[in-house]
Amino acid sequence: MKKILTIIGARPQFVKAAMLSRALGESNCFDEVIVHTGQHYDPCMSDVFFEQLGIPAPTHALGISGGGHGEMTGQMLYSLEPIIAAEEPDLVLVYGDTNSTIAGALTASKLHVPIAHVEAGLRSFNRRMPEEINRVLTDHLSALLFCPTETSVMNLEAEGINRGVHQVGDIMFDAALHFGKVAKESCHVGLRYKLTDAEYVLATIHRQENTDDTLKLARIFEALAMLAGEISVVLPLHPRTKARLDSMGLFNRFAHDRLHIIEPLGYLEMLALEQGAGLIITDSGGVQKEAYFFKVPCLTLRDQTEWNELVEMGWNSLVDVLNDDIVEAARRAFGKCGSNFVSPYGSGDTAQRIVEQLSAELRS
Fold first, then answer.
1. Cα(258)–Cα(247) distance, rounded to whole angstroms?
2. What gap in Å lies between CA 196 and CA 184, rounded to an integer?
3. Closest Cα to residue 89, out of 21, 25, 28, 5?
4. What are the catalytic residues?
5. What are the residue boundaries of the structural domains of the chain, listed by start?
6. CA distances from 85 to 81, 88, 91, 109, 257 (A)
7. Would you say 322 and 48 are in contact if contact means Cβ atoms under 8 Å apart?
8. In the predicted model, what is the mean pLDDT of residues 259-275?
9. pTM here?
């Protein structure tokens, strides 16, 4: 039996790991050791996901969070090295583009352990984004690159990466199909805030490029407050965003009866709100896709996106926070779906396809 050491630390990684860990266990071919870096430390951002999604308890919990990128990544490198050395895995598995991702990839590469990167090949082509640096470096360190789309495969080819590349589909599509129906039937969070399906906006704001820019953050919340004067807006508030609003004295400035600022939600509650929304406004990579999976129009408050196919198909629109009118863009997009729904993200069997590739590669 081959040993895989999986490194996760952030909400989107928990969702992806829920699907792949289940498939790894069902194969009876792998012994999976899970390491939780602690990057998302708040119980609402971490513990609830393990509970709701049935993820096995981590073997190692590092408890590393907060601080700058260098501090966090450095602490992870320091803590991961003895764990990987002691566990002696056949392969280290990382997801996405966070500090946990790059820390895992760097540590494994220095210990000469092969790396598998789930969600490889994504590019926003903006090197000012910390996530873009993490994606690029992780891909160039990895032996196995599991790509969600044809575009991501082409991005790797353009950088000279051809070996170990597999287009397997998007594992978050697996999760949306698997948990979406459960969420709709079991979670009634919309009723709690007296929200009517297709008659509210769901917003999420957490990206550093927005939260750390005082002008951008103020413009976003001014727009949400103005929009709430016309239609209900619900905003599960990320801990980082709340801290920034508090430090800037903005938290109480945008209070409005129909702007529901609430605590972070569990994955199932979030899926339920996404499915019922008439529009999603976000700066999250994962939420952009979940909006598409549930056929809900989306505004992305960023200059670039790693999911360009959603923009091309008309399901997602990029909004320049400093130069575009967010409220007007929301009015135009509300309730209006894209021109077609031809999923570029596979057929919902990504986890099984990854397990099959891992089995073949590790046997050889």
1. 24
2. 14
3. 5
4. 206
5. 2-170+347-363, 178-333
6. 6, 5, 12, 12, 54
7. no
8. 91
9. 0.86
Distance from C-alpha of 104 to C-alpha of 187, rounded to nearest angstrom: 34
- The answer to whether the CB of 168 falls within 8 A of the CB of 344 is no
Residues 264-277 as b/e (b if ≥16 CB within 10 A, e otherwise) read bbbbbbbbbbbbbb
Farthest CA pair distance, the chain: 61
Residues 6+ apart with CB under 8 A from 291: 274, 277, 280, 282, 297, 298, 315, 316
Condensed to tens digits (0 to 9), the pLDDT of residues 284-307 reads 988 999 999 999 999 999 998 988
**Total length of the chain:** 364
Count the neighbouring beta carbons within 10 Å of the beta carbon of residue 322: 10
In this model, does residue 208 exceed pLDDT 80?
A: yes
Give the Cα separation of 20 and 76 in Å (integer).
23
What CATH superfamily is the domain 178-333?
Glycogen Phosphorylase B; (3.40.50.2000)
CATH number of 2-170+347-363: 3.40.50.2000
3-state secondary structure of 264: coil
Amino acid at 160: G
Residue 246 CB partners (closer than 8 Å, separation 6+)? none
Q: 157 is written with which tokens?
A: 């080819």
Please give the full DSSP string across 200-237, using - where no structure is assigned: EEEEE---HHHHT-HHHHHHHHHHHHHHHTTSEEEEEP
Q: pLDDT tens, 122-140?
A: 999 999 889 999 999 999 9
Q: Is the pLDDT of residue 280 over 80?
A: yes
